[in-house]
Amino acid sequence: MIDVSADIEIAASPSTIAGVMFDPQRYTEWMTGVSRVEMLDPALAPGARVKHHGTFMGQDIVWTTQVEAVHFPHVLTLLITDGPFVGTTRIGIQRSPGGSQVKVHTTGALNGMPFVPDAMVATPMKAGLVADLERLRALVQA
After folding, report:
1. To which CATH superfamily is domain 2-141 assigned?
2. pTM above 0.70, yes or no
3. Where are the domains of the chain?
4. In the chain, which residues have pLDDT < 70?
């Protein structure tokens, strides 16, 4: 089981941050591992799916997420339904004295790679998540 989380303070309102974070068409602006997305279902509503294309650890990968729950602008829960990793990602955005506190928490398991130790994937996942949140902060605060 892989369990990775990161958080960051961003000097912006939850709705401004969610406007970027919850919009799959903006993922390429702040998520380094995503090179393009395909909107399979256009709405931000439970059941909506997005296919992601990108790279991880030098490998081209494709995965699909499905909205499990959304409470704009504070919570988005995504199921990662296929790809090299399956699980859940929860994004929480709460107002704070400096703007908003953003937390991303991903749990799940490698899919079809039983020979790869979880730690070999969790460490670069965590580093990527931290870097992505820094890019998000720079984008939103610009």
Report:
1. START domain (3.30.530.20)
2. yes
3. 2-141
4. none
